[in-house]
Design brief:
The chain is α+β, with helices and mostly antiparallel strands and about 350 residues long. The protein has 10 helices and 10 strands. The chain has an 8-stranded mixed β-sheet, covered by helices on one side.
Length: about 350
Amino acid sequence: MRARAEVYQFRVVLLEVVPPIWRTIQVPGTDSFWDLHVAIQDSMGWLDYHLHLFRVSRPGTSDSVQIGIPDEDAFEGDEPILPGWEVPIASYFTHPGTVAKYEYDFGDGWDHEVTLEAIVPRQKGMRYPRCLTGERACPPEDCGGVGGYEDLMAVMRDPTHEEYESTLRWLGGGRFDPERFDAKAVKFDHPGKRWNLAFGKAVQSRRSARRAVVVATPRTHPQPRSARTLSSVVSARTYSVWLEMLHALVPDGRTHRLSIVVAGMLRHAVDIAVARFREHTPERSAAASLIQAAQEADPERVADQIGDLVERLFRDAKVAGRRVNARGDEYSILDSAIQEFASWYAMPWE
């Protein structure tokens, strides 16, 4: 009963960004880690397009646990991920000063430090969660992590830059102001509503969400093209392995041989998209484009459907998809991968 009368006050800081971007929020002591995730997303200004993960120490030990959305495709021996909707924050944030790490978007890799500042009495008539204060807007989604955000800001400070106009359009015509933040303007979504959007209303209990990843009706809201990524289709573990492969192989490897490997990644993503979404494929999503591209034989039409997904894959891996061979000729692993994907079933495998 004690937690019902208490409010947990957190300071959330986005790491490695200067000047700092931070928020101070208060949430009910009865909240789960899923509820805290939603409060962090809404207060920071993220759009909750991507996966997330908390890392926090077990009380009284140096051992850490991972809390978020369990990975259905995890390998044997991988550190388990506890379902956030089943874990109360009070179980781990036991006293002021407790610190957790919160990662959002495993591609861009936005790391936050979440510190419990205080446990205070709940004020009568006050609605929670609430945002008390903070500074600066969070970066735009899918801008490429800390490095990409720094590059974006450098372009926007120089109206003569060759990418200024295109970047301005990508930002929505100048609506993004990195210095703007108003705590009073923060609106918090209901965690249950957000859960239904993520896993579908087909599963009634949030405790069934492990199964929901497979059987629930996915969200049907159209996704903006800037939010599209293969990590929204395959598991976080799979996408992470792909990024590690490309990052390790591309700089020094025989990169012209990698196109068929990337095409295989795309074909695997198609199989996952078909099995996961079936007839409920979200409009303009990565899954929808993959399924459509798999029916095309023309590389140009395939590129129209999923070219941005391949480019995002290489950008997340922090490697260049366009290379120069020993003779000085330019070539593109991305274009070659699209061609291999388009002709996948025409190859004489036997």
